[in-house]
Amino acid sequence: MTQTAADTKHHPVVVQQRLARAEDAQLRLADKVTAFAGSMTFVWVHCAIFAFWIASGLFGADRYPFQFLTFVVSLEAIFLSTFVLIGQNRQAAFVQAKADHDFVEQEAMLKENTELTRSIYKLTQELPAQLRGPGGSPIAD
Hints:
Blueprint: H1 12-23, H2 25-37, H3 40-59, H4 65-132
């Protein structure tokens, strides 16, 4: 797993999650659908489709255009809610992985700080004896 310059700006868990998602075609598709569904382009496309659908229903031969429209919109809502749940599951997994990584890092830093504090304490205990020199008399310059 090689890191690019852009990856060094991100948390290691973020980089790991991006690589894992890039390897799975289903997750890449889910990410693309979710990104599109969460955009204003999605809203404008739907406004245009619904306007055309309603206009064609009012002026066309179909006397009941809204029954099929309701069916289509309901199916779309089912699929979009599924993509929202996929996104929430992904976010929850990311948060857990980041929390686990941060815990390990903090524990390592705590251990290192504890060792440094003990070393400093030991040095401060030994320093007066070293300044006195052999026999307990102060060392002359």
